Amino acid sequence: MVLLSRSFIRKRAISLATTASVAATSFALAQDPARTYHVRGTMPVQHVADRPDGSDEQSFLSENDAAMNRMMADMKIKPTGDVDRDFVAMMVPHHQGAVDMAKAELKYGHNEQLRRLAQEIIVTQQQEITVMRHAVGDDLPLGAAAPTQPGAMPSSASSHDPGSHGSMNMK
Description:
It contains five helices and no strands. It is mainly alpha-helical.
């Protein structure tokens, strides 16, 4: 008679639980794929926007919801047969979504540490978009330095959103 060790049983239980979790998630996403980025238990933006308090919060949430919806829609691509080009086609909107959300933080946020982080996100994500487009031979937008050219790595202090309120001075 062979005895199963606790370690063996524990590993099999974890494997079974993981498999069940993945299957349940796949089933849930198959039921409503349009809501894949929403977190369970969070209040939808439209309900928050109906509250009379916090106009900045309402505008911030509205801009972020629009950025997320645009990003998710733009990430749905028709495969080209070129894995690299398809990767870039999906990742560029993903990175642009991060840029758009960071711009909303700069526009409405007050925490200086988060505002600095948002500036860094904008710079690095835009650089990565440029690198990806360059890697697959896409034309770079006018005024954008190629990743190998001097000046391709702008400092975060030089990148700011003209739509943000207040100065970008960091204290």
